[in-house]
């Protein structure tokens, strides 16, 4: 029964080159929100990892620990293609900057998962579904004919709801039409921010380990990446190292709090230090806060809410994690108008507009009472 | 803080098409600007999406069935052999498929040849990937391809830009804004150029099922030697009237398709899950669906042509595909006077650059003024054609090519006819308000450009 819900056909066997995702859907045992397993979703990655075959033969724990792509020896992107024998063989070319981004570790882990029938704890989506009231809203939008191009930077009501939510969470008042851009998931918000605000050669500081799309989009933007490793066991920010890394030559710092894959939350002290150094050196902050609603012990602090920081911060978030609707691809970037401009330009050439009915539903979701979040 | 923007972002301006759409909304005008239908999508497809949401297909997803159906359709409709396991990348709309394709094959400094006039987004994607667009003008009034002009753009550009190596890539788009479908001979010219220069080709085939007068859509991949060097991009948006669902794809040889997939994963992760499911239903549609789609749009095309020519617009080229009409302003239109006064005088000096930019911007302003007049007086919005024409950022050798602001570029307005009969009739009514007692379109003289 469960196999029929799997979107992947098992024959022929999938090749390693595909970054596929599968749905692990086990409706017979939905996980309640308070189930401790939820914590593990925080520690797993957000990338696409094909789910295990949906049978619980061998409940082995598998988490994708690395965020670095592993080159696949069989899939050198610049190797000559071997098409039909009737064709002359020419080496086909792929852009240099992306040569190293081949099959991700997630794809490889997924193949192992299928092979061994393991439970998939590698991919960052829940196997319980979103709340009914949100799904109903999307269905109603489809029936009401909201199926055509949305306004490029977001359906007005969706932008408004995002602004309302942001105000509740941070106290900051933003203009929904000038300071919010709706994107196809937080992943696209990240891509649009990098491509819209980073020039080739710009220096960007990131904290490792980090979500794999950061490196790829920074590479697409031609950035010079400086990576600072968070220190186990607490994954604290090595502030001295950060102080010596940042300078007037730094364009931006990328932070992710709560942090994927460690589950760390940046402390007030860490954020204050990063903030003051960014102000001193006139550096931007890109703050990926997609897990902000999944904070357990400490309160989430939004970088943009720190004194002097809103004007230089792009805050990135999405609907998917909070509402267990990761496949709807509704994300957003909140930034002052002069930074929103760049994000919007890139966004308009990456996807043009975001899925319309889901935005209507997102507006409903974001206005959910606070009791939902607890 | 403006200096915080990337160089690329700084060169971009807001979409004139979207801005006019907003104006139309504010004035409650009939929107014949943006290319989306105002009639509902097929009920079966919407039901499929609703059912997908209810069945909890709401998490990250890749629906391989889409690839199977695309491969089947490619074979049945075009005779193209596509491997569903290796040759297809599902993306968030054709837009993302195209963007991912650009990142997959373009390095900074690579040139990309495009045909003019063309849709505004291609240049943006190309520049985002660091590429340089090179435009080859199609010849009005039938938008034919001049083989010599085309081939010479390859040669000239190679010399101007090449450093150590380059990728030349030809971008093909079907039909927007002119409604032209390339003939087999023209495709052969393009194919020969790609083969002989070892170039790639990228096609935008979103209107593949919207062709008229029994003109058959031919995909470039069918030509000898082209399948392995062509990236086809398309989507469900236009064919199934669901432009807001963001389900598209790229079809290419396995290596390029894999690169596009990998990049897509980094750009957006995946396309919206419930709509991928619904796409299965859409792509399983039988020949009847496509037949009635064509018939329906063909009758809208014919109605719109009659409407516009009846009030004085010139339509010398009847669209063979897509749902746009690229109509010329009437000969009596004062716009032609504006054109004469903007002729360049000294193309060889630096001033030429300014005299090139400013008149074109002024013309755009003037066309925008006309369209604003259409919105305010007739309650109808369309798109100034000037925005679809471009001039090369790399300077040309000849005087003639420097004066890229050709007269004809100032004379077109694009109307979308992908609207219900009621809408088109209302538009007819509105436009008739602008017609004087002699039955001619009465447009205001240009007021801001007394040159």
TrEMBL record, chain A:
One GO MF term attached to the UniProt entry: kynurenine-oxoglutarate transaminase activity
Cofactor(s) for this UniProt protein: pyridoxal 5'-phosphate
Domain Aminotransferase class I/classII large: 119-371
Keywords annotated in UniProt: Aminotransferase, Pyridoxal phosphate, Transferase
CDD domains reported in the protein's UniProt record: AAT_like (cd00609)
InterPro entries documented for this protein: Aminotransferase_I/II_large (IPR004839), Kynurenine-oxoglutarate_AT (IPR051326), PyrdxlP-dep_Trfase (IPR015424), PyrdxlP-dep_Trfase_major (IPR015421), PyrdxlP-dep_Trfase_small (IPR015422)
Domain of life of the source: Eukaryota
Gene3D superfamilies: Aspartate Aminotransferase, domain 1, Type I PLP-dependent aspartate aminotransferase-like (Major domain)
Entry's Gene Ontology cellular component terms: cytoplasm
UniProt entry tagged with the keyword Transferase: yes
Designated name of the protein: Aminotransferase class I/classII large domain-containing protein
Organism: Linum tenue
UniProtKB/TrEMBL annotation, chain B:
InterPro entries xref list: Aminotransferase_I/II_large, Kynurenine-oxoglutarate_AT, NHTrfase_class1_PyrdxlP-BS, PyrdxlP-dep_Trfase, PyrdxlP-dep_Trfase_major, PyrdxlP-dep_Trfase_small
One GO cellular component term: cytoplasm
Molecular functions per Gene Ontology: kynurenine-oxoglutarate transaminase activity; pyridoxal phosphate binding
Keyword entries, A-Z: Aminotransferase, Pyridoxal phosphate, Transferase
CDD domains according to UniProt: AAT_like (cd00609)
Residues in Aminotransferase class I/classII large domain copies: 30-388
Family: Belongs to the class-I pyridoxal-phosphate-dependent aminotransferase family.
Needed cofactors: pyridoxal 5'-phosphate
Highest taxon in the source lineage: Eukaryota
Annotated protein name in UniProt: Aminotransferase class I/classII large domain-containing protein
Record carries keyword Cytoplasm: no
């Amino acid at each position: 029964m469960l196999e029929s819900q799997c979107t992947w056909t098992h024959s022929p066997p999938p090749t390693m080159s595909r970054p596929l995702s599968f749905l692990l859907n086990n409706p017979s045992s939905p996980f309640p929100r308070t189930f401790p397993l939820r914590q593990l979703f925080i520690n797993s990655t957000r990338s696409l990892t094909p789910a295990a075959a949906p049978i619980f033969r061998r409940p082995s724990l598998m988490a994708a620990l690395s965020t670095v792509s592993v080159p696949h020896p069989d899939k050198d992107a610049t190797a000559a293609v071997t098409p039909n024998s009737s064709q002359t063989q020419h080496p086909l070319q792929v852009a240099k900057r992306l040569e190293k981004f081949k099959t991700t570790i997630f794809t490889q882990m997924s193949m192992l998962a299928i092979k061994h029938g393991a439970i998939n704890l590698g991919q960052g989506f829940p196997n319980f579904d979103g709340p009914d009231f949100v799904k109903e809203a999307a269905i109603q939008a489809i029936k009401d004919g909201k199926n055509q191009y949305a306004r490029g930077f977001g359906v007005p009501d969706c932008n408004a709801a995002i602004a309302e939510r942001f105000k509740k969470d941070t106290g900051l008042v933003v203009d929904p039409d000038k300071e919010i851009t709706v994107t196809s998931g937080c992943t696209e918000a990240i891509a649009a921010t990098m491509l819209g605000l980073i020039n080739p050669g710009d220096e960007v500081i990131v904290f490792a380990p980090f979500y794999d799309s950061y490196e790829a989009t920074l590479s697409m933007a031609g950035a010079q990446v400086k990576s600072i490793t968070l220190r186990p066991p607490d994954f604290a920010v090595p502030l001295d190292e950060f102080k010596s890394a940042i300078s007037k030559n730094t364009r931006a710092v990328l932070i992710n709090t709560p942090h994927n894959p460690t589950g760390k939350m940046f402390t007030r002290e860490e954020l204050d230090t990063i903030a003051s150094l960014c102000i001193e050196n006139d550096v931007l902050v890109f703050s990926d806060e997609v897990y902000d609603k999944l904070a357990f012990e400490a309160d989430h602090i939004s970088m943009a809410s720190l004194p002097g920081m809103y004007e230089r911060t792009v805050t990135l978030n999405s609907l998917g994690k909070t509402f267990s609707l990761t496949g709807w691809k509704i994300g957003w970037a909140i930034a002052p108008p002069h930074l929103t401009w760049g994000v919007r330009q890139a966004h308009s050439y990456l996807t043009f507009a975001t899925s319309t009915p889901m935005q209507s539903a997102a507006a409903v979701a974001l206005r959910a009472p606070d009791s939902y979040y607890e | 803080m403006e200096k915080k923007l990337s160089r690329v972002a700084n060169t971009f301006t807001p979409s004139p098409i979207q801005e006019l759409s907003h104006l139309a909304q504010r004035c409650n005008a009939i929107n014949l600007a943006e290319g989306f239908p105002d009639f509902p999508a097929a009920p079966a497809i919407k039901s499929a999406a609703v059912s997908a949401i209810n069945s909890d297909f709401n998490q990250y997803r890749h629906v391989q069935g889409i690839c199977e159906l695309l491969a089947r359709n490619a074979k049945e409709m075009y005779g193209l052999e596509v491997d569903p396991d290796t040759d297809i990348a599902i993306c968030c709309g054709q837009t993302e498929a195209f963007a991912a394709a650009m990142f997959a094959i373009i390095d900074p400094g690579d040139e990309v040849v495009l045909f003019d006039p063309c849709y505004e987004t291609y240049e943006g994607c190309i520049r985002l990937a660091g590429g340089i667009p090179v435009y080859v003008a199609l010849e009005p009034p039938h938008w034919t391809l001049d083989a010599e002009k085309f081939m010479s753009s390859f040669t000239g550009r190679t010399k101007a830009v090449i450093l150590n190596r380059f990728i030349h890539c030809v971008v093909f788009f079907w039909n927007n804004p002119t409604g032209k479908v390339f003939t087999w001979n023209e495709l052969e010219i393009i194919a020969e150029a790609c083969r002989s220069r070892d170039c790639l080709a990228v096609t935008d085939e979103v209107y593949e099922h919207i062709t008229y007068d029994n003109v058959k859509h031919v995909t470039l991949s069918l030509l000898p030697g082209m399948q392995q060097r062509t990236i086809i991009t398309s989507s469900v948006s236009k064919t199934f009237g669901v432009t807001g669902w963001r389900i598209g794809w790229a079809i290419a040889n396995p290596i390029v398709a894999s690169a596009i997939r990998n990049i897509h994963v980094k750009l957006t992760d995946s396309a919206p899950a419930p709509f991928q499911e619904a796409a299965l239903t859409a792509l399983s549609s039988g020949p009847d669906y496509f037949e009635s789609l064509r018939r329906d749009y063909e009758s809208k095309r014919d109605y719109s042509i009659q409407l516009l020519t009846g009030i004085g617009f010139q339509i010398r080229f009847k669209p063979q595909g897509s749902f746009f009409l690229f109509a010329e302003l009437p000969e009596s239109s004062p716009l032609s006077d504006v054109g004469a006064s903007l002729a360049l005088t000294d193309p060889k000096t630096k001033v030429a650059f300014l005299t090139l930019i400013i008149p074109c911007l002024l013309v755009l302003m003037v066309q925008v003024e006309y369209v604003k007049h259409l919105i305010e007086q007739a309650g109808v919005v369309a798109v100034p054609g000037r925005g679809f024409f471009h001039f090369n950022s790399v300077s040309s050798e000849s005087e003639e090519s420097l004066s890229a602001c050709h007269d004809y570029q100032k004379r077109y307005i694009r109307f979308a006819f992908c609207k219900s009969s009621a809408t088109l009739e209302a538009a007819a009514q509105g436009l008739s308000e602008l017609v004087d007692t002699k039955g001619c379109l009465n447009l205001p003289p240009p007021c801001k450009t007394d040159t």
